Amino acid sequence: MNVDDNETTPVLIVGGSLVGLSAAVFLAWQGVPVMLVDKHRGSSPHPRAIGFTTRTVEHFRQVGVEVPPSLQGMKPPRRARVESLTGTWLEEYPWTPGGKGAYGAEDSPVHAIAITQDRLEPLLRARAVGLGADLRPGTELLGFVQDTDGVTATLRRRDDGHEYRLRAQYMVAADGAASSVRAALGIGRHGAGPLSVQRSILFRARLDEYLEHGVVQFEIEQPDLTAFLTTYSDGRWVLMLSDDIERAADEQIQVVRQAIGRTDIPIELVTTGRWELAGLIADRFSAGRVFLAGDAAHQLPPNRGGFGANTGIDDVHNLAWKLAAVLSGKSEPRLLDTYDAERRPVADLRHDQLFARADYKTHLTAPTTDVPVLDDASIELGQLYRSAAVLGADANLPPAQRPDQWAGQPGTRAPHLWVTIDGKESSTLDLFERDWVLLSEDDRWAVTAARLAAQLDIPVTFVHIGADAKPVEPNAFRTAYGLESDGATLVRPDGYIAWRTSTAPPDPIHALDAALNATAMPTRW
């Protein structure tokens, strides 16, 4: 290795699947130069994840990632327990308790969508490159050391074996459940632990006639076969088996035919997979200048809530604006401590929700009847952040509930409302991009916001509700945000409420100054 060929980057991302690519997009969109390395040269031939939630689609919408329409329609996919596709259909399950499973689409300008991971990743790559990210596929991390000023990574190009060093100010580890970065940091994990080893057979077959009822997921139950069968609605199907048996090609075709209940349909084998089903959460999501995200931080088994990949994408959306604020010199580095404080409780909540539901409850050795099952909207759009970057989210509040139950509580996602901006109908979510935003019906807050933005060197945009943005429904803003006519709400760049005052305080400048100093953590020169 030539030690003189050091390169530098503000942020190094290790891992180039969904979470790593999302991190590259979010950071580059924030104007942060970023380099991503991935030992693989492209997407896995296995489609893997398919369901992306309302909140994930909101993130993609914000940064200009255009996701094509779902091949499985607008409604949540349906699941049935059957002997085989042609055998007896035993029962159909609701998507989630309560049977709705819409991920709060009524509380958002977008909706959850089904797109396979191998088709979403190229869209993210293209957007990241378009925003200026430096993507280096076929490059593996050999090791790293960190000090008080940054991280020095040793990298190797797999095509020619060339090794070189890279100096980064921060590193994001999105290198999967078996994360070498997490292991090197000595970070342990807690949770339900390993559950089983899953084998998957990806194949093509003409089976569309069995989708006419709208069911796309099938639990196969036979005396000598228990399996899970689902379609990607593009001609590809996957059969999941938990017996961890290596099967030859003819044996794969045989078990697929047993699951579908027919031997007269051609089966085209595409690929196979082997992976560990587990519920494990890292004890810390950061160490020094290194941050864990995605499966490196939380290994969550696949379920009807889509907690795995979506939780990871949420992670890096939370982290990106904080890194951007610190790297630009606007905020103190202690803002980055709020990443672990905000995201790890969410991962723990989703882990517990998984094992409170029928899919995985049987895997637990201890009773979990004390864990109430939350609906999708609560988990995806109603989670509560508690950290130094939020004022007013005390310990007595629940960790999550439906968005309409919060009504603008600090620490929650700012509510979506339809508003008219410059004569066009938009969502309030369109107001939240890279700046802090102060919302109020009282335009006297405008001078206060401008004065403090200049004084603290924190970008704060004031939006006059009723003038700059006119709610389509009268009084909807006050109800959704929990404000009186002279109150105000401070929204972070990630669209979460940092602070609010229901009515105007006696000294608005002092109140907003205190809120910004506490939550934005401006740098003191």
From TrEMBL:
Name the domain of life this protein comes from.
Bacteria
InterPro entries recorded: FAD-bd, FAD/NAD-bd_sf, RIFMO-like
Would the keyword Cell membrane turn up in this protein's UniProt record? no
Cofactor(s) in the UniProt record: FAD
Under SUPFAM superfamilies, the record lists: FAD/NAD(P)-binding domain
Which Pfam family is one of those matched by this entry?
A: FAD_binding_3
**Gene Ontology molecular function, alphabetical:** FAD binding; oxidoreductase activity, acting on paired donors, with incorporation or reduction of molecular oxygen, NAD(P)H as one donor, and incorporation of one atom of oxygen
**Which keywords does this chain's UniProt record carry?**
FAD, Flavoprotein, Membrane, Transmembrane, Transmembrane helix
Membrane-spanning residues where? 12-37
Q: Where is the FAD-binding domain?
A: 9-348
Spell out the protein name for this chain: 2-polyprenyl-6-methoxyphenol hydroxylase-like FAD-dependent oxidoreductase
Task: Provide the organism lineage as a comma list.
Answer: Bacteria, Bacillati, Actinomycetota, Actinomycetes, Pseudonocardiales
